[in-house]
Structure prediction request, 371 residues.
Amino acid sequence: MRIAVIVGTRPEGIKLAPIIHRMNQEPLFKPVVINTGQHLEMLDQVLTTFFIKADYQLKLMRNTQTLEQLTADILTTLTPILKTEAPDLLIVQGDTTTAFAGAYAAFLLKIPVAHIEAGLRTYNCNSPFPEEMNRQLITRLASYHFTATDANKKNLIEERVPSERVWTVGNTVIDALLQVSSTSYEFPQELHKIIESDEQLLLVTTHRRESFEQMWKVYRAISRLVEENKQLRVLLPIHKNPLLRKQASIHLIQHDRIHVVEPLDYECFVHVMKRAYVILTDSGGIQEEAPALNIPVLVIREQTERQEGITAGTLRLVGLNVEDIIEETTKLLYDRREYEIMAQALNPYGDGNASERIINVLKGLNLKQNF
Prediction:
């Protein structure tokens, strides 16, 4: 069974790596890995960590490239590759431009599509943008849908996706996380002082496109938190987006307990997460990963598609209001009971065996009959 796997961003690489690894162990499968280069440097680090070599390196991302240009470039470049390789199935993951354009190209060529991490919804097409629209469109284009939770499956059933085409398997990000977090790791010298200090570590990540113009509020809140809490140290791996970097330089105070660093490779980031006391993030993947490490997560978004984490108590939605961010973070710093409730809540996103379940389903598919 020839299976094309398209990947373009770091989160896709992390979540698809366990599946690619398992396919390489099965004589039945012949995986073809196509890297669009949407996050070229960051993705290459992930693929190297998991010893995966892409069969195609497209390197399509350019400076000042718009979403519509990237979509067009992926479609026009990927189509001849799919015609040449003639895969029996294309696997896409999540809700990126790479995933949408890949699914659409395959659909036009009548190649069945399997969607990993299907069924996430906010039903607000501007939040997250463009991811919410991407994943809804991928649902219409895909033949097979692998969801992380029963709630995600319920979303698809309510959208009239046939139930026999939907499987709840957990999230493959937990497979990857457990593999990497179980290994020993030596931090780079520049991170030693930060990680090994006695202060409580607040790990912060910001990257959501729809929140760019309001992210200054997060940086203001961080500055006040450090000034008001002598035992707090902040680590912010800064996203490469120039607007975010400019806002951080303006609104983050210069302080010896605020550390703004370049993006960390995946292995390093996992081990940093293990050392964090609280994580403040707008990342979807971290909302799934951190609870598996028993780290409370405060979500700096107005809404999240990962409602299971809110219900389970592993996540708390704090939005982009300065006072709310400060209040909820301070509560976790000083109220041990509040902290333990979040840290000990059961992670709803899987047990580390999602990729095995996906492989078992793929083995039983009759692809030509089911397209």
